[in-house]
């Protein structure tokens, strides 16, 4: 076990009857990290979080918190605090009462406690809200109070269970920035559960992508997006075009790949994991495909197609381009740097798609 | 012809008024309930109140204003004494019922996972027999040669039957607590059921044990149910006269028995009315005191 790990999951499984909610999970979270658990609903991310909080006990394996095994300690004896999905603000207490709830045994004098409450109210930007009742708060304010209530306890890890899910888009984006700043300011480890990949990418130092109770990949946001390790991750995070291919030759860390739709192309692929004749997925992000309307001189890393439907999204546009030998269209995303010129993009128009050498991600296919 | 036109015009006008005016519509829709309230609740109260200021002379009322009944109420010690005893007995019944009902309501709300309805129906099963039968059943249970005494005797725990089981205030408390249990369980159950389970998790998460979480989160949040249950049990039991007259014995009589005798054997309706009014005011004062107490408790928790 890594000694700098604040949380360590060691072979953790959780079964509910016959359902394996969490299946042999092994990984460490470093001190001071903003760590996200990302996955579709039912992937076990919330169960994993609740095992850290103490609301679920692992069926097998052990969760270590700062080196201590946790499975026998009840939730109230753990140095972690949680921001609940619905915030769980006590309706019979005002804001101060909610924030002070966990401080009963802290041994503070009345004035010390008042000072600490004022400090966290300042931290969450709700100074002067102490005497508001729980029902007088907006969604965003409730969320801040839930944060303050947990942070005043100075937990070793703050657990956040989809805390931004109930907020509208603008407020959510604002809270994302504030959460990130707050975490950097106080330096506490955050363990964040979300199904929103954009949110995970924005906030996290590292992300664990989960599916069906298992951790598929752990990496930084840019690594996950730019060089995902599997088709599942590539598909789950952002949009991706996949093409079937086969490695035809290999030179150092560059491989030539034969595809039916894109022709021959070269791409970077670590030599140790490739063999000639291996079946692979060639994956290219929609924004890394550049449409041009005059035939390019070089035919390498480009393919001819026909324009299909398009969708205007304001900041960018999506095009569906049909290639020969391929039934489903290729998705192309183009930043609308200039004002939209509709007449340029007509259905059935000939178009060539170009890409850079490093735009191609090669993934194993079996 | 002309007549028909004006008739339909008036109807149209009325209809317009009904649709346009919020108060008219409100009172019209309210009228059935309002009439029932006036004739069923307000009128009898007025009659009772008026009656309490009259006097009885053989079979006739002396219909002049008099405070004699109220003076008698305070001069003869029996009335105040019995009233206070009724309050005490009902208070004990209320406490016993709520203390018994809370764990049952808690169990159904938090521990029963499926078929809660069946549990709730089971709680009402005793009510499928008449109130009188249930009181008589307790008489059989608690009696000198009753189930408890003969059971303990045949098991060899007793040589002489316990005399204190029946015909005293304790037997009234036991019988009433059983009779009113469902009225306490249901409101407490409803208020417990409404508590968001994540609030209990939040209590644990913030460092409180299960017991302290109960005291600091569950109990204050279920207080509305406890208050409702207390009032539902306390108010009707103060005036109850069936149970005390059947299982209370001479020491277990309550204010309801006095009122009943005034309207019955003693043939003094004005005096009965005066006792009723005094009993009503005392109960109202007790409720005020109780609500004030729970309110300040809630403030203290917050």
CATH arch. level architecture of the largest domain in chain A: 3-Layer(aba) Sandwich
Domains of chain B, number:
2
Q: Please give the CATH architecture of the largest domain in chain B.
A: Orthogonal Bundle
Spans of chain B of 5+ residues with little confidence (pLDDT < 50)? none
CATH homologous superfamily grouping of the largest domain in chain A = P-loop containing nucleotide triphosphate hydrolases
The total of helices of chain A stands at 8
Please indicate the percent range of residues of chain B in DSSP E strands (runs of 2 or more).
under 5%
Q: What CATH first level of the largest domain in chain B would be assigned? A: Mainly Alpha
Percent of residues in helices of chain A comes to: 10-25%
Radius of gyration of chain A: 25 Å
Instruction: List how many beta strands of chain A DSSP finds.
Output: 20
Give average pLDDT of chain A, whole number. 91
The proportion of residues forming helix of chain B, as a percent range, comes to over 70%
- CATH names the topology of the largest domain in chain A as Rossmann fold
The CATH class assignment of the largest domain in chain A is: Alpha Beta
Write a concise keyword list for the protein shown above.
heterodimer, A: alpha+beta, Rossmann fold, OB fold (Dihydrolipoamide Acetyltransferase, E2P), six-stranded mixed β-sheet, five-stranded antiparallel β-sheet, 20 strands, B: 302 residues, mainly alpha, MetI-like fold, 14 helices, 2 strands
Can you offer a commentary on this structure?
- The complex is a heterodimer of chains A (366) and B (302).
- By secondary structure, chain A is α+β, with helices and mostly antiparallel strands.
- Chain A has 2 domains: 5-235, Rossmann fold (3-Layer(aba) Sandwich); 239-364, OB fold (Dihydrolipoamide Acetyltransferase, E2P), CATH 2.40.50.100.
- Chain A contains 8 helices and 20 strands.
- Chain A has helices spanning 45-53, 95-100, 110-123, 139-151, 169-186, 197-203, 221-226, 231-236, and strands at 5-16, 19-30, 34-38, 60-65, 68-69, 80-83, 157-161, 189-194, 206-211, 214-219, 241-251, 254-259, 263-268, 279-284, 290-292, 302-312, 316-323, 330-335, 350-354, 361-364.
- In chain A, the strands form 4 sheets. Chain A has a 6-stranded mixed beta sheet with strand order 6-7-8-3-9-10, with helices on both faces.
- In chain A, a hairpin with a 6-residue loop joins strand 17 and strand 18 (330-335).
- Chain A starts with a strand and ends with a strand.
- The relative contact order of chain A is 0.11.
- The mean pLDDT of chain A is 91.
- Chain B is mostly helical and 302 residues long.
- Chain B folds into 2 domains: 2-51; 69-301, Orthogonal Bundle (MetI-like fold), CATH 1.10.3720.
- Chain B is built from 14 helices and 2 strands, in the order H-H-E-E-H-H-H-H-H-H-H-H-H-H-H-H.
- Chain B has helices at residues 2-20, 22-51, 68-75, 77-111, 116-124, 131-142, 147-154, 169-179, 181-193, 197-205, 210-238, 242-248, 255-263, 269-301, and strands spanning 55-57, 60-62.
- In chain B, strand 1 (55-57) and strand 2 (60-62) form a beta hairpin.
- The model of chain B has no long low-confidence stretch (mean pLDDT 90).
- At the A-B interface, strand 6 of A face helix 10 and helix 11 of B.
């Amino acid at each position: 076990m890594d000694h700098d790990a604040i949380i360590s999951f060691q072979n953790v499984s959780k079964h509910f009857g016959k359902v394996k909610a969490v299946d042999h999970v092994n990984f460490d979270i470093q001190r001071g990290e903003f760590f996200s658990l990302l996955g579709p609903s039912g992937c076990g991310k919330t169960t994993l979080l609740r095992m850290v909080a103490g609301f679920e006990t692992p069926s097998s394996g052990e969760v270590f918190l700062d080196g201590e095994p946790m499975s026998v300690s009840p939730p109230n004896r753990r140095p972690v605090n949680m921001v609940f999905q619905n915030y769980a603000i006590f309706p019979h207490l005002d804001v101060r009462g909610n924030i002070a709830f966990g401080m009963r045994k802290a041994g503070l004098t009345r004035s010390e406690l008042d000072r600490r409450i004022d400090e966290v109210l300042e931290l969450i930007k709700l100074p002067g809200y102490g005497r508001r009742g729980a029902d007088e708060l907006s969604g965003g304010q409730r969320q801040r109070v839930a944060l303050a209530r947990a942070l005043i306890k100075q937990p070793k890890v703050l657990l956040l269970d989809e805390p931004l899910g109930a907020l509208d888009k603008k407020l959510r984006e604002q809270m994302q920035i504030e959460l990130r700043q707050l975490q950097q300011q106080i330096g506490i480890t955050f363990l964040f559960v979300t199904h929103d990949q954009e949110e995970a990418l924005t906030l996290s130092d590292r992300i664990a992508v989960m599916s069906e109770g298992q951790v598929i990949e752990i990496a930084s946001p840019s690594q996950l997006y730019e060089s995902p390790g599997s088709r599942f991750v590539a598909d789950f995070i952002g949009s991706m075009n996949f093409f079937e291919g086969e490695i035809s030759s290999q030179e150092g860390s560059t491989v030539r790949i034969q595809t039916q739709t894109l022709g021959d192309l070269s791409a970077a692929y670590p030599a140790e994991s490739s063999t000639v004749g291996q079946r692979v997925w060639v994956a290219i992000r929609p924004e890394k495909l550049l449409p041009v309307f005059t035939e390019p001189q070089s035919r390498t890393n480009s393919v001819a197609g026909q324009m299909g439907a398009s969708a205007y999204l304001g900041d960018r546009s999506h095009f569906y381009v049909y290639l020969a030998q391929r039934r489903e269209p290729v998705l192309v995303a183009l930043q609308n740097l200039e004002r939209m010129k509709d007449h340029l993009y007509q259905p059935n128009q000939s178009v060539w798609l170009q890409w850079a050498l490093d735009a191609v991600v090669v993934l194993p296919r079996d | 012809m002309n007549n028909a036109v004006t008739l339909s015009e008036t109807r149209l006008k009325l209809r317009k008024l009904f649709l346009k005016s919020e108060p008219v519509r409100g009172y019209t829709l309210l009228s059935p309930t309002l009439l029932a309230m006036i004739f069923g609740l307000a009128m009898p109260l007025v009659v009772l109140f008026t009656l309490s200021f009259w006097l009885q002379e053989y079979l006739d009322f002396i219909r002049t204003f008099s405070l004699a009944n109220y003076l008698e109420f305070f001069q003869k010690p029996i009335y105040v004494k019995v009233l206070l005893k009724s309050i005490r007995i009902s208070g004990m019944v209320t406490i016993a019922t709520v203390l018994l009902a809370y764990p049952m309501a808690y169990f159904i709300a938090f521990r029963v996972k499926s078929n809660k309805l069946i549990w709730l129906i089971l709680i009402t099963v005793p009510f499928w027999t008449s109130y009188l039968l249930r009181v008589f059943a307790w008489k059989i249970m608690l009696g000198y040669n009753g189930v408890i005494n003969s059971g303990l005797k045949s098991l060899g725990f007793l040589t002489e039957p316990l005399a204190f089981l029946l015909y005293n205030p304790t037997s009234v408390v036991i019988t009433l607590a059983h009779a009113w249990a469902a009225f306490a369980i249901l409101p407490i159950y409803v208020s417990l059921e409404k508590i968001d389970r994540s609030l209990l998790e939040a209590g644990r998460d913030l460092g409180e044990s299960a017991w302290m979480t109960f005291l600091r989160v569950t109990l204050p949040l279920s207080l509305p149910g406890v208050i409702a249950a207390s009032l539902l049990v306390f108010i009707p039991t103060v005036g109850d006269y069936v149970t005390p007259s059947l299982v209370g014995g001479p020491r277990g009589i309550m204010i309801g028995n006095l009122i009943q005798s005034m309207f019955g054997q003693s043939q003094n309706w004005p005096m009965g009315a005066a006792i009723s009014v005094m009993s009503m005011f005392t109960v109202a004062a007790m409720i005020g005191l109780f609500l004030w107490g729970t309110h300040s408790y809630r403030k203290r928790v917050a």
